[in-house]
Amino acid sequence: MLGIIRVLTHDDRQFVEEHGRLIQREYGIVSLSRCIPDQRKGIYDDASQILAVPKIVALGQALQAEGCSALFLSCAADPGLAELRRAVTIPIISAGSASASVAAMLKRPAAVMGIGADAPLPFKQLLGESVIYARPEGVFNTTDLLTPQGRESALSCADTLYRQGAQVIAFSCTGFSTIALADSIRQHLGKIAIDAVSAAGLFISQLAPR
Amino acid sequence: MLGIIRVLTHDDRQFVEEHGRLIQREYGIVSLSRCIPDQRKGIYDDASQILAVPKIVALGQALQAEGCSALFLSCAADPGLAELRRAVTIPIISAGSASASVAAMLKRPAAVMGIGADAPLPFKQLLGESVIYARPEGVFNTTDLLTPQGRESALSCADTLYRQGAQVIAFSCTGFSTIALADSIRQHLGKIAIDAVSAAGLFISQLAPR
């Protein structure tokens, strides 16, 4: 059983289990998703990240105690990943380093696409401080992506990055997973895009959690 | 410490430790390489594979007992992978499924390149029974790759596959790692190639063996 750590507090089970559903659909892996407590706006700055890290560590330990054989830290910033690795004995895959490391391994011109102001730390560490980064016009949070304009803006942003010479785009936001942007890119642009949830599933699939 | 299982018997330490050196150079991971005993020709047919599986399992158990926190089964056919997973409690990455699963995750037209008669099983399982497969002309074993003609033939084989529509080539032979064929492809053809040893290193890097 894979334990999925969601780094925000949310009451909607459908929403909380969404990354688990994507991983099950693509890799047939069954999971158990849990939220950290009392962070309804998730992690959005240094203070909220500092507050979240001990909760992430405690949740990871609880999931291991409940029998999970691997963990997925579902956030592109890998918050508390090092601390979590010290606190549990099972393998942990995190969305940011999963996505960035696959892009880095391909060793072709890469760009990062997200919804924040800048590429998250694991992308800079694995693809270089000066890695090209873009966010879709008019998209500032995952809800903006769910509108027809949001989807169009995301595809258009990717198209621009490919035209500028990127051969690979790594997603630094799991909101793109929800709207299946990687599929749109493959279908409409015929290019290579690394979905962060799918990249995490790739790693988990090779760990063969039992 | 990563434990590397070589599926043939060889006295030359340099040769035995070569995949470990490649992984250390690319990912900074330190490893310990060991060969299975009494199989100087390695695995080359069903009978030699049946003979090798219990040796692979025993070697994996010994490496875990010596303190390895992850294993790399360095063979594109994943021989005995399921049996080994049942016999040890640490994560195991195998060259064949590592290479094939990265190619599959990209979901673009893929081909497989090796030196055997056909694509090994993990490549058919992950990329489809009918996945396009080719081997370089005049290359029948890894030694053939080490000559200038062998290298030229390998690059030319890749070029043909890309011209036929492949956007991604997954290597099903670790001999291509030795001659750095993926780098040649990137440099001369500007295309995406998945090196099997490098793909294995990618997975190990995210497992963070301690």
From TrEMBL, chains A, B:
Pfam families named among the record's database cross-references: Asp_Glu_race
GO molecular function: amino-acid racemase activity
Domain of life: Bacteria
InterPro entries referenced in this protein's UniProt entry, alphabetically: Asp/Glu/hydantoin_racemase, Asp/Glu_race
Entry protein name: Hydantoin racemase
Species for this entry: Acerihabitans arboris
